[in-house]
Amino acid sequence: MSQKTLLQDPEFQQALEQLIAEKIAHFVRQNELRARELALIERVVRVEEELKALREIEQARFEAIEKRFEASEKRFESLQREMIARFEAMDQRFEASEKRFEASEKRFESLQREMNARFESLQREMNARFEAVDKRLGMMQWTMGVGFTVITVLITLSNFLLR
């Protein structure tokens, strides 16, 4: 009975309740700390998993960007080759045009020389004609001068003689 009496004793019950409350509180505090530690560890694990996932995503993006750059580079290289080929074709066309212009220039120069020769010959012919006309006019002038002088002398003599 002593056990029943001990359990029924209010002081013992109060001491027992207090001890149980302290032990439970201590247990809860320890478990809270452990729970917090576990929660923190779980959060750290989740953050690390997220970081790993982000790294994988970033790596995939970088690889995709690298592929795009390589494709762009290939396109630029093909465009550059195409442009070089076009420029070479244009250079060839310009060279052909330049040769045609040189040939045309030679023809124009020969035509210019021919025209100069013709104009010079025409100039000589015209000078010869003008000299011939000038001689004729000189002769006519002298003839008219002599004729007027003779007429004047005859008129003067006829005036003196007939008076």
Q: What would the keywords be for this entry?
A:
163 residues, 2 helices, rod-shaped, single chain, mainly alpha
In summary, what is this structure?
This protein is mostly helical and 163 residues long. It contains two helices and no strands.
Q: How would you characterize this protein structure?
A:
The chain has 163 residues and is mainly alpha-helical. It has one domain (2-162). The protein is 98% helix and 0% strand. It contains two helices and no strands. The chain has helices at 2-8, 10-162. The relative contact order is 0.02.
Q: How many DSSP H or I helices?
A: 2
What about the largest sheet?
none
Described by its quaternary structure, the protein is single chain
Helix/strand order, N-terminal first? HH
The helicity comes to over 70%
Strand residues, percent: under 5%
The separation of the N and C termini measures 217 Å
What global shape is seen? rod-shaped
Computed CA radius of gyration, to the nearest angstrom: 66 Å
Count of individual beta strands: 0
Structural classification: mainly alpha
Total individual domains: 1
Low-confidence stretches: none
Average residue-wise pLDDT: 90
